[in-house]
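Readers outside the structure-tokenisation community will struggle with the description of the input data as it stands. I therefore recommend that a typical entry be quoted early in the introduction. An entry of this sort, consisting of the sequence and the corresponding backbone structure tokens, reads as follows:
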Amino acid sequence: MSRSKLGTSQLVLAFVLWTNQACFGQTLGSIAGDTRDASGGIVAGAAVTVINLGTNATRTVTTNETGAFSLDFATHKNFRIREGHELQFRVEAFNVLNHPVWGSPNTNLSSVTFGRISGTNGTMRQMQFALKYVF
């Protein structure tokens, strides 16, 4: 096999292994939403528990003052360099779907912006990448 074909084959294999989630370590997902009671009112400070039925792993978050909650995503992949040495690549994303949590409307009756929502509560999508060399 020629050198360029071998390099291409290795690249394709690396891509398939990289994109296959079974090759990664623990992977966490992201869920966002808001909590409301039967009448449609916001429920602030409620505990929201998410259960992975496959592993029975649970995560609990508390809703903010607008009833919104968000769970985040993280995964990592370990690459063995040689015995006793490995490189870990880690990806973490916060508010991974970039869902806005709208702020409260202006409640000042004498304001020209009465009833207008002028911002969001919470943060925009944030991603961070890390490499760690373990020896």
